[in-house]
Amino acid sequence: MTRRVGFRVDAGKTLGGGHVMRCLTLARVFRSLGHSCVFMCSSETLKVIPEDMWDRFEVRETDPLPGGDAMPGFDLLVMDHYGMAAPEESLWREHAATIMVIDDLANRRHDCDILLDQTYGVRNEDYDDLVPAGCRRLLGAEYALLREEFALHRQASLARRGESLTLDRVLVSLGMTDVGGIAGRVCGILSEIDIPHHIDVVLGRDAQSYGRLQEICKRDDRFQVHSDARNMAELMLAADVAIGAGGTTTWERCAMGVPSLVVLLADNQTKIADLMNQAGAIGLVGDARTDTDRDLQEGLLRLLADVDRLSAIGKKSSGICDGAGARRVVDRVMELVAERERADRYV
Questions:
Q1: Contact in structure between 196 and 222 (CB atoms under 8 Å)
Q2: Best CA proximity match to 251, nearest among 166, 141, 344
Q3: Are the CB atoms for 200 and 240 separated by under 8 Å?
Q4: Which element (helix H / strand E) includes 201?
Q5: How many CB atoms lie within 10 A of CB 285?
Q6: N or C: which end of the chain has fewer CB within 10 A?
Q7: Distance separating alpha carbons of residues 222 and 217, to the nearest angstrom
Q8: pTM of this prediction?
Q9: How are strands ordered across the β-sheet holding 283-287?
Q10: Residue 206: what pLDDT?
Q11: pLDDT tier for residue 36 given thresholds of 50, 70 and 90
Q12: Lowest mean pLDDT among 135-144, 145-154, 242-251, 276-285
């Protein structure tokens, strides 16, 4: 049975694009099973996310809250938005038979039937007072929403790292919107370090650091910029170490077993990064909002010099996420949607 699935999600210069990217991953799995998907987003989102990244999905510009007879109805509505909580979610009830919320903060009440939190270390009790009594909870990194390419490349990436680590190639990927010009700061620091031999930088053409990276590339041939890259799994497969933020790409690096050095960019990344750092699954470089370039340089140098620790980080992280979470989520969600539909028929 074909279902109509809606997504209420936004991106922005300060918010970044991670919420949209993980919803697109989910939508691709729904579409592969024959379901139709519609995205409802702000005007800023449509400026931040390139048109070709929407992968032919229907995208509608919408006001923050639903309204008007033109608003479509959905069998399932997925809401992934830090700016919305129970009061706003309740307004969508008349447009959706089932509401699913994606959250990773556990800091506000939700009105939803399904709650997904893919955070490493999240506990069931974190949401005891935040969701309705009958809400089904999908919790933990086993539900991480990653594109299929990461599961497909996972075994090759893990096999490649079975031998001793050599620091020849580093991947720098610090978010689509380059919050605060962090990519330029990190690459400026790396340009002053003798290692590694090759540095791949993933960056959007509209990113704040794009011009600075072009200048760095002209004077340092170790650097190569990949604009709006669509082959992240392949780039991670080739990388010996990855430098990234503490958002969605954390789970991508885990699935590929890439030793991950994390620079914090936002409050919502702190808890996850601290837990994973304590578990030995990442190396925490520092916080870009409070640390100086000298602080970040010292953090990077300390971690890049410890090859044994980097190797251990890669092995530990690979056990946290296997890359199959998106299909796992869709299978579970459609089971719950069908259960609710059967229950409604007998009321």
A1: yes
A2: 141
A3: no
A4: strand 198-203
A5: 26
A6: C
A7: 7
A8: 0.89
A9: 223-227, 198-203, 169-173, 241-244, 260-264, 283-287
A10: 84
A11: very high
A12: 242-251
- Identity of the amino acid at 236: M
Which three-class secondary structure state does DSSP give residue 345? helix
Q: What's the Cα-to-Cα distance from 55 to each of 37, 58, 116, 229, rounded to whole Å? A: 11, 9, 23, 14
Structure tokens at 53: 């990244």
Between CA 256 and CA 145 the distance in angstroms is: 14
| Two structure tokens written together for 119 | 């955070």
Question: Measuring CA to CA, which residue among 321, 320, 164, 147 is closest to residue 240?
Answer: 164
Tokens for 65, please give them: 């809250």
pLDDT digits (tens, 9 = 90+) for 49-69: 989 999 999 999 998 778 655
Q: Look up tokens 């991947």; give the residue.
A: 171
Kindly report the length of the chain.
347
For residue 51, which amino acid is it?
E
CB 323 within 8 A of CB 255: yes
Cis status of the peptide bond prior to 50, with omega within 30 of 0: no
Q: Tell me how crowded residue 225 is: count the other CB atoms within 10 A of its CB.
A: 21
In this model, does residue 346 exceed pLDDT 80? no
Q: How far is CA 164 from CA 97, 160, 250, 314, 320, in A?
A: 52, 10, 23, 12, 21
Q: Report d(CA 309, CA 147) in Å as an integer.
A: 28
